[in-house]
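This section describes the prediction task in plain terms. A model, or a person checking by hand, is given the sequence of a single protein chain and must write out its three-dimensional structure as a string of tokens. No templates, partner chains or ligands are provided. The sample shown here is typical of the held-out split.
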Amino acid sequence: MLLQRKKVSPALSEEAQLLYRSLKRLPQLDSFRNPVTRDLARKIQNAEWADTRKELDFSYDMSVQPMGGIDGIRMLTKGFREDGPVILYLHAGGFVCGSPESNAGAVLPLCHLTGGQAFGVRYRLAPEHPFPAAWNDATAYYKALLENIPEGKRVIAVGDSAGGNLLLSSLVRWRDEGIRLPDKAVLISPVLDGSASSDTMLTVQKHDPLIQNKGGTSISNLFRHYANGTDVNDPRISPLNADLSGLPPLMIQVGSREVLLGDSARLSQRAISAGNDVRLRVLDGMFHMFHLYWNLPETKAVYEDMANFALY
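The expected answer:
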């Protein structure tokens, strides 16, 4: 479904206004549920996300980097410095698609601006590997990563959409298990509530250019698919329900046109109430995963903000 008839605010950059006309809805869950269409849906969606890397105006390198028995990708840009931060990246994809390579455009700009290197986790996907497979993979990779970097090395964790869910639930787990926490964490448009009860699931659903939410049922069905019988309100699956005390400083970035805006707003409120340092950034008119579109002035601005947060 194209969005030619959607009204877009003139406050957005010309680049963003043009992009809105070409945006397509993300695939429905049924495409991934059906074994006949699953591989094709993954291939198409991953290719669309990977194609956004063509917008990057800096050179980069990606290489295979397994750790802790889990596959992963190491990412560097031309400006890599030995004293730059180590970045753990958990990719988007609704728990059912995506990869560190296809979604690399969401983390490579941070490498570029900080001189850091990123390690993207190729966690296992549902429905072949439902919860807790991805959750366990993230922890196994992170623990091995800590063992392979110098003690005291600055570590930044980044997760977008479903990767943001895995990151927040993992932060709670690492705190509880006494594992060293990242120095800072960035959550990009995280999906955090398996019951899909945020107000924006209803109020923004007709204005979100990418996510067909259908009154909250699309996202709640996605969570049930991922949970595979575990209660979707379990804090490991819906980390908004977790004890959020004792977490590292958090930056949350989300667009005002996302049905997931409410999840980010509620996370900010609850994490602040739990005593954490939290910075919520809401980008006017922006859509889910706009971070992949490096040509947008809005995208460049949020990565500058993210880099300053990561470094200082």
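For orientation: Residues 14-311 form a domain with the Rossmann fold fold (CATH 3.40.50.1820).
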